[in-house]
Amino acid sequence: MGLLTKPIKTLDDLFVHQLQDIYYAEQQITKALPKMITKVADPELKQALENHLAETRKQIKRVEQVFQMHGEEVRATSCPAIDGIIEEANDVMGDASDPEVLDAAAIAAAQAVEHYEIARYGTLIAWARQLGRPDCANALEPTLQEEKAADLKLTEIAEAHVNRAAAVTGGSRR
Ligand SMILES: [Fe+2]
Ligand SMILES: [Fe+2]
User: Fold this and answer.
1) Which of 17, 42, 96, 112 could bridge 102 with an S-S bond, Cβ 3.0-4.6 Å?
2) Is the pTM of this model over 0.85?
């Protein structure tokens, strides 16, 4: 917990803290995705990331809506977990010189982001219900479904062609 966040004493405090955490994470993802989109080569992967960038922008609005529904100031708190995932993605993608291997690295990184988000939104929804706020849970549910769909789409793209292409390229260089 950062120095500027208020002490977390109740489940409600924890809910608000996690809302601030995911608000920060979604903003960092919005900044990271355009860079990833310009680097990847596979057209289907590019399109999937572009679609998810548009979804992510809507997801930020939903988090803002939940802050308002909960009577809380809209604010972000830094999230070292998402910073680490994005930093690692940039490092690995920076090192990959083959376009096919880079695409495989981008999918791996994007799926790490999606799994992080699935964990966070799953918890937020469960806590909102426990706190007697099904309205907040329902407002976040479409986002959880979008994160799961984005993760599945990335698996499909990887297994349909990107992994095979990366194996062929990588294999030929050995
Ligand atoms: Fe998201
Ligand atoms: Fe996502």
Assistant:
1) 96
2) yes
